[in-house]
Write a structure and sequence with these properties.
Layout lengths: L10 E4 L7 H7 L2 E2 L3 E3 L15 E11 L12 E7 L6 E5 L2 E2 L6 E10 L4 E10 L2 E11 L6 E10 L5 E10 L14 E8 L3 E8 L10 E10 L2 E3 L8 E10 L4 E12 L6 H16 L3 H19 L1 E4 L2 H17 L26 H13 L2 H12 L2 H10 L21 H4 L4 H17 L8 H16 L1 E3 L4 E3 L17 H18 L4 H7 L3 H13 L4 E2 L4 E2 L29 H6 L8 H7 L6 H12 L9 H11 L3 H12 L21 H10 L3 E3 L2 E4 L9 E8 L2 E8 L2 E8 L3 E5 L2 E5 L2
Parallel strand pairs: 25-29
Antiparallel strand pairs: 1-8, 2-3, 3-4, 4-5, 6-7, 6-12, 8-9, 9-10, 10-11, 11-18, 12-17, 13-14, 14-15, 15-18, 16-17, 19-26, 20-21, 22-23, 24-25, 26-27, 27-28, 29-30
Helix pairs in contact: 4-18, 5-6, 5-9, 6-9, 6-10, 9-10, 9-11, 10-11, 11-13, 15-17, 17-18, 17-19, 18-19
């Protein structure tokens, strides 16, 4: 655990700059608006260690899969997000010397991410020779105009001598990905145009041999300043720069605003159309003041917070954590574009390649259902439907029928290069099916499941029916050679979570097939023989169980391990993944994240209190929570079992996972999909929210460390406010028609 920022309710702020923590600070001050995002790296020159990362939604590159031993079925390429053309770049010179905080003497440092307004501010006072200036940077990525990046820099002479000031505002196409093979570049600059106060760069991703699309991006800057614009030579064929100069007397200041419009070929068919749009959008924002642009941006964020804010009194650490999580989650995705999804790192780093994982369906869908319009979640479901062709391809590569949705993808084709994850962690097919059910159960909207969703369910079921095998010895269907959610176990047989999801998916699909229209049933073309076979699998699926312990066994052989609890591991050997060999981890009983408990969370109302208790008590002692997705699920189950202290402990871990760098890996970027965990722990855990037979149920408790908490929840065209304090729980209908909810077993009528 390492804390580098102060604890405040609405701000991620520090007054301490340590070069060794710069990447950590960059991750935690990342900005995004769904369309694009960036790490909190410095605009100006910095010669120390840094990761200058800017990423555009849906823009990626297929890098050749490189493995030591090629196996039939491997994907040809590994997809990765492309580090975009650097459009926030600046050089600032004082009396001819560039400001560089890796070398300069400076004071009064402040780095402040205002998560209420989505505004990043950085300021410091730098001394260079006999010159002393105060510098302030402000930046935001507009959610009102998603193609717009806005920066402002102010420089004030706080010394006693005049200062010669030069600010170069640039767009630089000479960028690389940190994890690129052989240090190659992924952008070819097509054209540049440099004026005195404006400029643009058009660049296209380099050719690839896999037939995947190449992407063109266009960046156009316009600068507004009280400095003098000087005409300068273009620095290179890949970069454009505008130079502004002035002389500051003592106490005088100067200001520069940099507005950049970013467009991509995802939205335009031709380069000419893209270029025209770039110019038109630049003209549009040029007619608005900085204050007008900022106000429009802040208003959208205010509307989002009005629906989603969770208020916690009595524990500022808990308050900061949940708001930071929601802020970064919404900065990554808010459902505007059904072609996009939620990558585990979002726009905050290059790890995991910026692709889509099963995290979306398992962890993000429950949250977006609760705090956004249902169309946001429907877009996430449509994302998978539109990629069915890729899922067919993935299954066919393994010689299997139906559809295998990818573990990692941009376009539906599997693009991950670790076999034990890519083609063994097939539970994601069941997670996608469960998300369809979850959406339908929560919203009451059957239009998706009876149409596009029924197609997805049918093809997933065909995959499961082909992937299982029948054991003549045990007279059961089994699934061998898989990896469950606990990735510290690879190539196991009969992972309970995988098996129960396969069984459940087949059962749910059979139910939906009875409800679809005759026209849809004809399109799906599921034969009676198929249905009988699916039902036979449902009736005879093997689910590992130990009657003495009354637990569902994670997989065959798990109980034969050397079962010693995590408490016996020396503290200096944690995290295991940074201290133990992979061989030692695989042989150990230690669980990366909920596996059996993931399934119990999914189907929490289907198990008895005794079953939940015995499984939680058994598996919790072996769980190291080295997946960011883990603590929230355990927190909900602990709350369900009235283990209130454990529930709060695990909430704190999930809510402050990145803020306190629990797993010592936030330097690579934030754990965006895990930022759903705080909401899940509060709403499903502390408030006990469940949906049963179309009705909302709550069973709230107040953590001892808190004096009060409240949240708002979207449910079937209503907005409901839940307020829990030392006097009990209180509910209010903010918007929508009257509704009856259940609170601790008693009906409560809500109306405005």
């Amino acid at each position: 655990m390492k804390r580098t920022f102060e604890v405040t309710p609405w701000n991620i702020v520090t007054h301490d700059f340590k070069p060794e923590d710069k990447r950590l600070q960059e991750s935690m001050t990342s900005l995004g608006n769904g369309y694009m995002g960036m790490r909190g790296f410095f605009e100006e020159d910095y010669s120390g260690d840094t990761l200058n990362g800017i990423y555009l939604g849906g823009v990626w590159y297929p890098d050749k899969t490189r493995v030591g031993w090629w196996k039939n079925g491997y994907p040809d390429y590994f997809g990765k997000v492309v580090n975009a053309v650097n459009f926030i770049k600046m050089h600032i010179k004082i009396n001819g010397e560039a400001i560089d905080l890796a070398k300069d003497q400076f004071s009064d440092f402040e780095l402040n991410l205002d998560i209420k307004k989505a505004l990043l501010t950085r300021s410091f006072t730098v001394t260079k020779g006999d010159a002393k200036v105060a510098v302030e940077f402000v930046r935001f990525l507009s959610v009102a105009q998603p193609e717009l990046s806005v920066q402002r820099v102010r420089v004030q002479n706080v010394g006693s001598n005049k200062v010669d000031l030069v600010i170069d505002s640039a767009i630089d196409g000479d960028v690389k990905n940190e994890g690129a093979n052989y240090d190659e570049r992924f952008w070819e600059v097509l054209s540049t145009e440099q004026g005195t106060d404006s400029g643009n760069v058009l660049a296209k991703t380099t050719p690839n041999p896999f037939g995947t699309p190449r992407f063109t991006s266009g960046m156009e800057m316009r600068n507004v300043t009280d400095l003098t614009a000087d005409k300068v030579a273009q620095p290179s064929e890949k970069e454009v720069v505008n130079e502004f100069t002035g002389v500051l007397a003592p106490n005088e200041s100067a200001q520069l605003e940099k507005r950049v419009i970013i467009v991509t070929s995802r939205d335009y068919d031709t380069q000419a159309a893209l270029t025209d749009a770039m110019h038109q959008l630049s003209d549009k924002v040029a007619g608005q003041s900085y204050d007008e642009l900022l106000e429009a941006h802040e208003q959208v964020w205010a509307d989002r917070w009005n629906k989603s804010d969770i208020v916690i009194d009595g524990d500022t650490e808990a308050q900061q954590g949940i708001r930071f999580n929601l802020f970064e989650l919404f900065s990554t995705y808010y459902g505007e574009d059904s072609r996009l999804n939620i990558g585990p790192k979002g726009f905050t780093g290059e790890k995991y390649g910026g692709a889509t994982y099963w995290d979306t369906e398992a962890f993000a869908v429950p949250v977006y259902l609760g705090i956004t319009d249902p169309k946001v979640t429907r877009n996430l479901l449509m994302y998978r439907y539109k990629q069915l062709d890729g899922a067919y391809h993935n299954a066919k590569q393994q010689g299997l029928k139906g559809a295998l949705f990818p573990m990692v993808t941009f376009d539906g084709i599997e693009c991950h290069n670790e076999w034990e994850i890519t083609f063994e962690e097939i539970h994601r097919n069941g997670d996608i099916a469960f998300a369809i059910y979850n959406y339908t159960r929560y919203t009451g909207d059957t239009s998706y499941v009876l149409n596009e969703g029924s197609k997805v369910l049918t093809e997933i079921s065909r995959f499961w029916a082909d992937r299982v095998h029948y054991s003549q010895r045990n007279k059961n269907y089994m699934i061998h050679g898989v990896t469950g959610p606990d990735e510290y176990e690879n190539n196991v047989d009969n992972n309970w979570y995988t098996n129960i999801l396969a069984q459940w998916t087949l059962k749910y699909t059979l139910q939906i097939l009875k409800e679809v229209s005759p026209e849809q049933a004809k399109k799906l073309n599921v034969s009676e023989d198929e249905k009988k076979h699916w039902q036979d699998i449902v009736d005879n699926m093997y689910l590992p169980y130990d009657k003495d312990l009354n637990i569902f066994v994670q997989h065959d052989g798990f109980l034969d391990k050397d079962l010693k609890p995590v408490s016996e591991i020396p503290a200096d050997q944690l995290p295991l993944n940074q201290n133990w060999s992979w061989d030692k981890i695989l042989r150990s009983p230690y669980i990366k994240q909920g596996d059996v408990l993931q399934g119990i969370w999914d189907f929490i109302d289907d198990f008895t209190p005794e079953q939940k208790k015995s499984n939680f008590d058994f598996y919790e002692q072996y769980t190291v929570h080295e997946s960011s997705l883990s603590p929230a699920i355990y927190s909900v189950l602990a709350a369900d079992l009235h283990y209130e202290e454990k529930a709060v402990e695990l909430y704190e871990r999930t809510a402050r996972l990145d803020l306190d760098n629990y797993n010592n890996d936030t330097v690579d970027g934030l754990h965006i999909t895990a930022m759903t965990g705080g909401w899940i722990a509060v709403v499903q855990g502390f408030a006990g929210m469940r949906v049963r037979d179309g009705k909302l149920h709550y069973a709230p408790f107040l953590p001892k460390k808190w004096s009060h908490y409240s949240f708002r929840q979207v449910f079937r065209d209503r907005l409901i406010e839940v307020d829990v304090d030392q006097d009990g729980s209180h509910f209010k209908l903010i918007d929508g028609e009257p509704i009856t909810i259940d609170v601790a077993g008693k009906p409560v009528e809500l109306s405005k």
